[in-house]
Amino acid sequence: MAIAWDTSLSTGIDDIDDDHKKLLDVINVLGTDDDKSREELTAILNDLVDYTRYHFSREEEMMEQHGYESLEKHQEEHGFFVAKLMDLGEMLESEELSITRTEASAFLSMWLTRHIRWSDFDYVSCVKGKD
Predict the structure, then answer these.
(1) Where are the beta strands (DSSP E) in 1-131?
(2) Which is nearest to 78 in space by CA: 125, 123, 38, 43?
(3) In whole angstroms, what is the distance from residue 50 CA to residue 63 CA?
């Protein structure tokens, strides 16, 4: 189930939107390319983990610089997502490949789009100075 980027996911912060687009692209590759081997999917998932950590770090730094008061809650959500990525990595090693990919893609797409629309949109006015 590929998720396409649309304006409903735009925070209006170009760097953050670009990161979100890249994350969605990688999630879509993980869930839609049936020709990938377990090793190739593991590499894609590792890239996703690395880019997710980079994005979350950048996002959290931006929120901290602007005094976003719900930063700790946001960091907890980020921690949950990274932990889930790690769990998916373990599943990828031990379970049926097609089921794991389908479950992973569905969960990751759903979580990321909800997180953007609910949690990320919450910090936008603080970061843009519109409190």
Answers:
(1) none
(2) 123
(3) 20
